[in-house]
Amino acid sequence: MDFLWSPWRSSYIDGFKEEQKEMQKSCFFCDAIKSINEDDERLIIAKKESYIILLNKFPYTSGHILIAPIRHIADYTELNNNELCDISIAIKESIYNLKKVMKPKGFNIGVNIGEVAGAGLPGHIHYHIVPRWQGDKNFMYVTGETNVISFANEDLLLKLRPLF
Predict the structure, then answer these.
(1) Which residue among 6, 12, 28, 62 has its CA within the 20 to 30 Å range from the CA of 146?
(2) What is the biggest distance separating any 2 CA atoms in the chain, rounded to whole angstroms?
(3) DSSP string, 141-155
(4) For 91-101, how does the pLDDT look when each residue is reduced to its tens digit (9 = 90+)?
(5) What's the structural domain count of the chain?
């Protein structure tokens, strides 16, 4: 099947356009960085001097981690060398810790720079670390673009946080 035809969804999807504009005015990374005593609600794994690590509230797969610099910047070329090194080490630690806790068979690691490249929050650059398993994209995703998430973020948070 190439397409699942559902034209009635267009009015549902259109309802999110204003909501998305409002969301882009705020930055959930900056909100998380400034937050106090909200680490569990914001799924914060670790806050460091130059970056923050959190679980994605809307993951592609279980264990989907986001890493963002503390500074609110949009462009990869604006990262300084310390931020680049620190974030690279954080990516390596994330992979190690996810392997330990979840035992994935692979990873997708990436960054979307700019809205046209798929950045959902184009004003604050961030990295995605997405654990992968054989067959993790089953018929639910293929036919309905619906991810099946097998692990609760709250449980993963409790397992991952002490490792960072």
Answers:
(1) 28
(2) 49
(3) HHHH------S-HHH
(4) 999 999 999 99
(5) 1
